[in-house]
Every structure is written in C-alpha cells, then in structure tokens.
Amino acid sequence: MDGLKAALGPFGIFSHELRSEDPAQQDRIRRAAADVENLGFGAIWLGGSSSVRHAAHLAASTDHVVLATGILNIWFEDAHSVAAQRADLERSHPGRFLLGLGASHAALARDYRRPYSTMVEYLDALDAAAPPVPADRRVLAALGPKMLGLSRDRAAGAHPYLVTPEYLEQARGILGPEPLLAPEVTVVLDDDPATARATARGFLGYYLALPNYAANLKRLGYTDDDLADDGSDRLVDALVVRGTDDTIHHRLRQFLAAGADHLALQVITASGDSEPPLPQWRRLAALTSGLTR
What we know:
By secondary structure, this protein is α/β, with parallel strands linked by helices.
C-alpha cells in the first residue's frame, strides 16, 4: 500500500475533460495529460463513467503519472472484459493504472439492483479473471459504511466523491490507518464569495438531487433545507474549496488532516468549458507545492 500512496503523492487532477472521445480534442488531451504530469501531480483521475480505454489512450503521452478511472461504472462494463483490458495496459505500461469502481446511481444505471451485493459479485469476478485484477490496484467509490468496509477488505481503499473533511474523519475510522483514502475535492479558483458560490451551485445542483449523495450528506447532519436550491451557503462552503490562495491552501490542509492520503482535485469554472483548464491546473500546482499530509 505504501508503494501506491507514494506513486499517487498527495495531489492528483480529477478531470472529465481528459476522457473526452471527441476526435478533434485528442491531440489537445494528450498534451494536457503530459502537462499534468510535468506539473508534478501524481495521478490523473478520469471522471464521468470512465473506462480502461480512456486511461490507455493517455498512457503513451505520459511517463509515470498514475492513470485512474474515477469511476468505472460496474453496471455498464463486464468484469472479465475489464480485467483483460487492464492486463493489456499493465503489460504495455506496468504499474501505471489504478482501477476505480463504482455502483453509480439508480437513475444512471441499467438493471440497477442491490449495489453492495453487485459490487461484491463484481470483485469476485475480477478475482477469478485470468489474470485477476489485484486488490491493491483497485479502489471503490464508497460513501456509506458498508461500501467503505468493502473498500478496506477487498480493495486498496476508497475514492469517495462530494465529501467534507468531517466525512473523511468518519471514513478513516472505518477504513483504519492503512487503506488508501483518496477523495475527489472540488475547487473553484475565485476569491469572490458570491461568484464562487454561483459557480459551485451550477455544478452541485445535479449531484445534490441524487439520492446517494443526499443520504450521505444527511448522515453528516445536513438537512433538506441545505440541499434545496443547489445548496445552502453552509453546504456549498463545506463541499467546495474556494477563496484566496491562502484560504485554498488552508482548506486543502483540512482535507489532508482529516485523514485523506491523496486529493483528486477537480477544478470547476464559471464558463463550464469542455477543454482542459490548464491555467487553473498550473495555479493549483503552485498552491500545492510542498503541501503534504
């Protein structure tokens, strides 16, 4: 586990943009992935129901950055096919890939049923594949206590999405000290509270309407009022890192101090541009330089 944590380092970039399949974007995406690596980030987390093929597409344009799915949707990808694709990628680029798995949401999946049991079956299939996907090269997009326990027992750890430092303290208590805890952390690089919150709400509204996220936030003490209208100020400020450079630096420290080993930083911009936000990633690289757990 220490080897994986060392490879990831404290910070990575979480990006939907880098998994685009638009043919016109492919050269730009490969160059952007190389830039992320050169900036010193330890991982690229490919968001939005990503697949092994999305990671394989970036492997040749990078040298050592970990390429992770954040997350692969178990309802849409056969476990044995995933294991075979992962084995091919491992042969050509050893040690570069981390398989992030998630059970998604009922509204976004076909034939949705008992997500915990289905994840157990999926992990069983990965174990039985030839060759198998090693437990220490996969993480689960866990939120609730049962899935966190499964992340501890059957994977390298957990990759939760849309969480707070308080959540991470609780998750670390379930995982114990050794498993990887690598949450996605949303960042808005804007020090104006009104415009930063407006940008954050434009992003959060979709997720707050999904039952899994809503239930997790309610376990943390947030109410229906907090979840309404794309999030109360209290909730937005807990979920989204924003503000001056000093404030952002302080907030990232809070996530690390709460128990995270690695933060997968997702930059949200007001424009919602589909192109990789390289200027913002460069600023984050400067902000996180020298910041460790």
